[in-house]
Amino acid sequence: MKYVDELRDGATARRLAAAIAAEADPDRGYRFMEFCGGHTHAVFRYGVPDLLPPNVHLIHGPGCPVCVLPVGRVDAAIELARRPEVILCTYGDLLRVPGSRRSSLLRARAEGADVRMVYSPADSLRIAREHPDREVVFFAIGFETTTPPTAVVVRRAEAEGLANFSVVSNHVLTPPAMAHLLDSPELDGPAAPSLDGFIGPSHVSTIIGSAPYEPFAREHGRPVVIAGFEPLDVMQAIRMLIRQVNAGRAEVENEYTRAVTRVGNRKAQELVSAVFAVRESFEWRGMGSVPGSGLEVRPEYAHLDAERRFGVAVGQPRENRACICPSVLRGAARPTECTLFGTTCTPDHPMGSCMVSSEGACAAHYAYGRTR
Ligand code: SF4
């Protein structure tokens, strides 16, 4: 299959591994973060770390939308779902994410709340049409890739005059989060080994393009190489990063030219800007409050904004202290450093969001038998 088989070819992977080994300077280490959870799964699924020289390290980033949702927002979703007039619609993974005191949307549903799993925002719009006597709330999560479909349903609900539909926006933005990670003392401070560059996200970049990474690559002096999800994409991106580091360059390069351009998808960007505004700051699990990193529904669509409509408040959560998801999400710890990993916490019985989502680092370590 074109663009699949040729990017998974073992012989080419071995040649690329040899080229990486030849170009990596043995007298230094390289630490590259794959921001996106999809890349984390790809590197483990295809054994990419085993093909790299021992001084080239991959650090998992926070690019998993379910994982980065703070527990306080999970609690808010549960509280909203418990209102008798509400049908709360959201994606399947989110149902299993533990809130405070081991609550979850799944548990709330077992206790009588009307929580529906949907595959797309359009499903929740259909449910709203089918239940005009109920308040249907779409609890939206995701990075720039999933924001345009949410914008579409907000506009459609407006056009149809659907009075019983609204959205909680938990949509987040990638470039501010990457910049924030570079400001993190755990990753970039004098006491910690430095991060040498990023493998940039694939799908997010198809929407936003490569240009939004340029300011922080320049300001923080860290290269970014946008890569596709196939193993040879990731290996080629690592090679490009090593070349930049060796040459003392910090530029944005695009390995994924078959899908990503510098400007991205302008139509999707316009749609998102028409419906959403950038929040002053947004709380990320593990990273705290990140300036300019979240989207809220614009005042023009206030009647479709469930946060305003229901006065959704995000309180102080009670987190499971044994779960080190927050450190895993900012690349400061590996999943296997968690004492619950693979014992108390498994994909069937997740204790934290990083084990729930198929894009979570703990789930990836567990699925592919990584013990380090
Ligand atoms: Fe949290 Fe489970 Fe990962 Fe530990 S293994 S950090 S408890 S999700």
Provide the low-confidence segments as ranges: none
Report the CATH C-level class of the largest domain.
Answer: Alpha Beta
The N- to C-terminal Cα distance equals 33 Å
The structural domain count equals: 3
Can you count the helices?
A: 18
> What's the architecture of the largest domain, going by CATH?
3-Layer(aba) Sandwich
Can you count the beta strands?
13
CATH topology of the largest domain: Rossmann fold
Radius of gyration: 21 Å
Q: Look at the structure and give the mean pLDDT.
A: 92
CATH superfamily of the largest domain: HypD, alpha/beta domain 2
Bound molecules: iron/sulfur cluster
Q: Give the % helix.
A: 25-40%
Largest sheet: 5 strands, parallel
Query: β content, as a range?
Result: 15-25%
Order of the strands making up the biggest sheet: 2-1-7-8-9
Based on CA inertia axes, which overall geometry fits? globular
- The helix-and-strand class reads alpha/beta
